[in-house]
Amino acid sequence: LPAAAADDDTLRDLVEVASTETVVEQNYPNPFNPMTTIAFTMPAKGRVTLKVFDVRGRMVDELINGEREAGRHVVNFDDTLLSSGLYMYQITTKDQTVTRQMTLLK
Questions:
Q1: What DSSP line would sit under 36-101, residue for residue?
Q2: CA distance 91 to 85
Q3: How far apart are the first and last CA of the chain?
Q4: How many whole angstroms separate alpha carbon 1 and alpha carbon 31?
Q5: CA–CA gap between residue 100 and residue 87 (Å, rounded)
Q6: CA separation (Å) from 69 to 32, 60, 102?
Q7: Low-confidence residues of the chain, pLDDT below 70?
Q8: I need a surface site. Which of 33, 36, 73, 102 has the fewest CB within 10 A?
């Protein structure tokens, strides 16, 4: 029983961390052609930006720039004008910035 209690404490700690931070999921599918989905969960209502950058750091798209309610949000990214390659998407809230990589294959 003590091992089960330790597992419960660990799970409770993980839930507390997740409920206080914005959680950014890896886009799916990845690699993609030409559409992918980016999902994130916000613990509270607030301002958020979601931007896509190329490998040189140039912003190629801004998918969100404004207030969003608390909860899970899903954004479709479909940019048929981009070339194949590595791109980064960056989600910024009041308290944090998270960047993930994605690959476009044509």
A1: EEEEEEESS-EEEEEEEEETTS-EEEEEEEEEE-SEEEEEEEE-TTSPSEEEEEEEE-SS-EEEEE
A2: 20
A3: 53
A4: 44
A5: 9
A6: 28, 25, 26
A7: 1-19
A8: 33
SS3 24: strand
Cβ atoms of 66 and 47 closer than 8 Å: yes
Q: Is the pTM of this model over 0.90?
A: no
| Total number of residues shown for the chain | 106
Candidates 91, 87, 85, 102; CA nearest to 66 is: 91
Give CA 104 to chain center in angstroms: 17
Give the three-class secondary structure for 22: coil
Give the pLDDT confidence score for residue 1 in this predicted structure. 45
- Cβ atoms of 29 and 36 within 8 Å: the answer is yes
H or E element, residue 25: none
Residue-wise pLDDT tens digits, 31-48 = 999 899 999 999 999 999
Query: What does DSSP assign to residue 32?
Result: B
